[in-house]
Specification:
Radius of gyration: 48 Å
CATH superfamily of the largest domain: Nucleic acid-binding proteins
CATH architecture of the largest domain: Beta Barrel
CATH class of the largest domain: Mainly Beta
Order of helices and strands: HHEEHHEEEHEE
Distance between the termini: 89 Å
CATH topology of the largest domain: OB fold (Dihydrolipoamide Acetyltransferase, E2P)
Number of helices: 5
Strand content: 25-35%
Length: 204
């Protein structure tokens, strides 16, 4: 397009301007020739400006949008090479949060309070873990679920621990005698004025 305007349109404007202004083949008077000359010069300027814009567009470098790479991320090595660096995700198990109080501290919250008031005080402790070490009073099977262990009382409060059906745990508890000391951890399930109940217990 720019070549056509430069070689033909501008040349035509120059020829027309020369013919009209200097040779005057149509017999225009002075005013007509001046006006026509202004029109021809304006057209020549228009074509020249258009040629400049077209040349600027043709010489402009093509730009391409860069999109981030998909899939594994990349890392630049010391030598400057780009090497794939996969994203590794690991699931961290929730850490067990153990209480810093004992069973007697929990049952003591019922002293001087109504049951509903005491349960409000107990609520922050439920679901957290407790470590307990005491003498066995009894071990009872819970059909289809596991084993329940009851500790000697006194000392108060009474303690009941629920163990799920883990074969090794069942085997160890199966040979425990009354008076044997065991150490276990479990989640606080319920607390009353006389007893503390733990679930999901594990022997240590």
């Amino acid at each position: 397009m720019s070549i056509f305007l430069e070689k033909f349109a501008l040349a035509l404007c120059v020829a027309v301007a020369f013919a009209v202004i200097f040779t005057n083949p149509f017999g225009f008077d002075r005013t007509q020739r001046i006006c026509l000359g202004i029109v021809v010069v304006s057209l020549a300027y228009f074509f020249a400006h258009t040629i400049k814009l077209l040349q600027r567009k043709e010489s402009a470098p093509a730009t391409t949008a860069l999109s981030p790479p998909s899939g594994p991320t990349t890392a630049v090595t010391a030598a400057g090479a780009i090497s794939p660096k996969p994203i590794l995700t690991t699931s961290q198990p929730n850490p067990r949060e153990f209480v810093s109080v004992g069973p007697a501290d929990l049952t003591a919250l019922f002293k001087g309070t109504t049951d509903i008031q005491a349960q409000t005080l107990i609520a922050p402790f439920k679901g957290k873990w407790m470590r307990i070490s005491r003498e066995v009073y009894d071990v009872k099977p819970v059909p289809g679920d596991g084993v329940a262990v009851y500790f000697e009382s006194p000392p108060l409060p009474r303690m009941s621990l629920f163990f799920t059906n883990d074969p090794r745990t069942i085997e160890r508890l199966g040979i425990a005698k009354r008076g044997d000391r065991i150490t276990a951890v479990g989640r606080i399930k319920a607390v009353s004025a006389e007893a503390v109940h733990l679930e999901d217990c594990e022997l240590e």
